[in-house]
Design a protein that fits this description.
383 residues, alpha/beta, Aspartate Aminotransferase, domain 1, Aspartate Aminotransferase, domain 2, 2 domains, 7-stranded mixed β-sheet, 12 helices, 12 strands, 14% strand, binds pyridoxal-5'-phosphate
Length: 383
């Protein structure tokens, strides 16, 4: 039996998602651009998938565009908005703790002559609203802030930022990387005055290699993926039909039961935290109490997180030391920016939960974590 506690890295697809993908692969394999009947049927399936996603996102169908996931969504939105609006200014704002798909895109834009302000965070992983206001300039064209940080679960005040930007006399576009918040926080981009939003399928029990962007219809944006004109010529390329149908199924299941899902995951997180606190000493909790429902980052002092991770995998318990994408590099940029000591960074483990986890699994996992931590501490103290 396995206990999978790495749901921020990816989630297990719902059975309905897999069934829908098998249906798309076996029956609906025609090219949606083909003009024959079989192609038209597939085109209709995509149209319905878009409608379903738009409904749960509180958007118009034409504001939803399919992509290959969070990384591509962030890339094409940030670059596309910067390129389309450079005549109004070349200043961009983001934070120091974004996902690499955002940070490296901004680094690239700097080489193209754009100026980027990277906002600091406090020891809870939060930016200061004052800093954000002070960073705004006459030539700012885009603000890009992640909703939920993937390593510690900090929730940025994107509602407040959106409200503020919407009241400015000049247009400053607002992009939110919602990869870790869509399906974990009850919100709609239009309510928060978000112009652009990135979502990934595999974080919500959908398929990998599929995602979508929400682009408010009034947004001035340039397409950077040119070709046959699919996705209203914003993102060309033959559509990933199994991915799109699977994604829409994942969105439906996630969003239909959103409040219950959030409550369930929050309760599991509380249980995990309380069990760890009452069973294991010398720990530091790096996620704040007001963080997202599914992420809990904890440092086990004196232990290397990576070694604990491998000890746990022997018992089929799967966790992470940071984000899956950056975990092979030394030291998390997020924990460093939060001002953690090196022993705290070294010993950090990210637990991330989903509705597929069970209470008894959490209790069992903590029992094993306790054993492994004690074992490792004895070995280290003998050295
Ligand atoms: C906040 C955030 N943004 C973007 C991504 C990238 O998404 P994808 O894996 O779909 O490219 C991730 C993945 O971990 C993420 O956590």
């Amino acid at each position: 039996m396995e206990i999978y506690l790495d749901n921020s890295a990816t989630t297990k697809p719902y059975k309905e998602v897999v069934d829908k993908m098998v249906y798309a692969l076996t029956d609906q394999y025609a090219n949606p651009s083909s003009v024959h009947r079989k192609g038209v049927i597939v085109e209709k399936e995509i149209k319905n998938a878009r409608k379903e996603i738009a409904k749960y996102t509180g958007a118009k169908d034409k504001e939803i565009f399919f992509t290959s996931g969070g990384t591509e969504s962030n890339n094409i939105i940030i670059r596309g908005t910067a390129y389309a609006n450079h005549r109004s200014g070349k200043h961009l704002i983001t934070t120091k703790i974004e996902h690499p798909s955002v940070l490296n895109t901004f680094k690239d834009l700097e080489k193209d002559g754009y100026e980027v302000t990277y906002l600091d965070i406090d020891n809870n992983g939060l930016i200061s609203f004052e800093d954000f206001k002070n960073a705004l300039r006459e030539d700012t064209i885009l603000v890009s802030i992640m909703h939920v940080n993937n390593e510690v679960g900090a929730i940025q005040p994107v509602d407040k930022i959106g409200r503020y930007l919407s009241k400015l006399k000049r247009k400053v576009y607002f992009h939110v990387d919602a990869v870790q918040s869509f399906g974990k926080i009850d919100f709609k981009p239009s309510k928060y005055n978000i112009d652009l939003m990135s979502v990934s399928g595999h974080k919500i029990h959908g398929p990998k290699g599929i995602g979508f962007v929400y682009i408010k219809e009034t947004t001035k944006i340039k397409s950077i993926v040119t070709g046959g004109g699919q996705e209203s010529a914003f993102r060309s390329g033959t559509e990933n039909v199994p991915g799109i149908l699977g994604l829409s199924e994942a969105v439906r299941i996630t969003m239909e039961n959103l409040k219950d899902n959030i409550d369930k995951i929050n309760n599991l997180k509380e249980l995990l935290l309380n069990e760890i606190k009452s069973n294991i000493d010398n720990i530091k909790v790096n996620s704040s109490e007001n963080g997202v429902c599914h992420i809990l980052n904890i440092s086990f002092i004196g232990i290397k997180g990576e070694i604990l991770l491998h000890y746990l995998e022997e018992d089929n318990i799967y966790v992470s030391t940071g984000s899956a994408c950056s975990s092979k590099k030394k030291g998390s940029h997020v924990l460093i920016e939060m001002g953690l000591l090196s022993k705290e960074i070294e010993g950090a483990i990210r637990f991330s939960l989903s509705t597929m986890n069970k209470e008894e699994d959490i209790k069992k996992a903590v029992g094993i974590i306790k054993e492994k931590v004690e074992e490792l501490r004895i070995i280290i103290n003998k050295r």
